[in-house]
Amino acid sequence: MEIQDNIQWHPAFCSAVELELREYKDYLTYEREHNLGRMPLKIDLLIIKKRPDIIIRKDIADFFLGNNILEYKSPGDDVNAGTFFKALSYACLYKAEETGVRDICNVDTTVSIVREEKPVKLLGQLGEKYTVTKKKAGIYRIEGMLFPMQIIVTGELDKESHIWVTSLTRALSRKDAQELLDNCAGLGSDEDRKNADSVVNVASEANIELFKKMIQEGDQMCEELKELLAPEIVEFKIRLAEQNAQLADKDAKLADNAVEIAKLKKLLAEAGIKE
Description:
The termini are far apart. By secondary structure, the protein is α/β, with parallel strands linked by helices. It has ten helices and seven strands. It is 48% helix and 16% strand. It has helices at 9-20, 81-96, 101-105, 120-129, 163-166, 174-185, 190-206, 208-217, 223-228, 230-270; strands at residues 28-35, 42-49, 67-72, 109-115, 131-136, 139-143, 149-153. The protein has two domains: 9-169, tt1808, chain A (Alpha-Beta Complex); 175-275, no CATH class.
């Protein structure tokens, strides 16, 4: 069962993928929550490669064809055989929308399922009937299916090479958080910075105590990053102020209680009554 989660992981994931593949932005078209016909079904992220001659040299996308379906599962969500074949069905329905029979028969579609934790049971089940190859850390390719398919385990990916998608976790370290912010500072285009803001927003919400500490320390955050994190900084400062006010109120009440107890003790002593 999928856990209830108010954090908007999916939009941040789409932004993270665009940042991962930003070198190829001129050759890729991104469609978030692509609708499948009239049915209430949506593909999390559809990436259309506009030129077949372009080779993507990022390991999570080097097998991309013309149409590439990505199904993202938030941290804590389950990934099982049902999830796998549901993603496969998306590809089938997407291909069924092709206008020409020849186009339908051309397998120009890939399917990727992305999750933080490794779905050990699912990979074992798939390995019994299909060929599962670990291409690199965190990338498992499944051969023998109707479409080229892969399972990406973000928790196993090289963090240096994939800072954006690996930052979508509840277990971000101080080092990784600083690396994320440093990468944000190096972005040039407004589009990239907007995507980075989406990733940082979710990463900070999912790791609120870590970012609170970093904001409190403050020295290591340049002004450019402060501008990027402005909404989060304001929110954290408000929360910190509220917490400090609550603590101050508790301290004041404790102090009042101490004074009251002292008065009672004095009255008891004057009356010759022992405690």
